[in-house]
Design a protein that fits this description.
Layout: E1 3-4, E2 15-23, E3 27-36, H1 39-45, H2 50-54, E4 63-69, H3 75-89, H4 97-102
Antiparallel strand pairs: 1-4, 2-3, 2-4
Length: 120
């Protein structure tokens, strides 16, 4: 069941999610599919695509999130499923939001690549 993104409390489990916006005729429409090792962290820390999602004119009526936990899928399987969904629903896009942001000089690094804090 879709929840307003600002009110959604996702579980701290691996899974897939979809960001949706309201459409006056079709109800909710997806604008991004993603995968995460921890759905709660992904939404609480803020996804690098958040500002891009806000640029969608329909986002003024709210951003919604739906999710499915997928602890049985490993990281690569979740990632490939997220890419597959994006390419299926958005065939005209040349690349996903994640691929787009990776081409920018300023973007959030994946958690595994984030620099560690200096020792005190």
């Amino acid at each position: 069941m879709p929840k307003l993104m600002m009110e959604a409390m996702l579980p701290a489990l691996p899974g897939l999610y979809v960001i949706q916006v309201r459409h006056w005729w079709d109800g909710l429409q997806p604008i991004h599919f993603g995968a995460s090792r921890n759905l709660h962290e992904e939404m609480m820390e803020g996804h690098a695509g958040f500002m891009h999602w806000l640029t969608d004119p329909r986002s003024r009526f709210g951003l919604y999130v739906s999710y499915a936990t997928a602890p049985e899928l490993d990281h690569d399987s979740r990632h490939h499923e997220g890419l597959r969904l994006n390419r299926h629903y958005f065939p005209r896009r040349e690349h996903s939001v994640d691929e787009h942001l990776a081409s920018h000089r300023i973007h959030r690094l994946p958690r595994s690549q984030e620099p560690s804090e200096p020792a005190a």
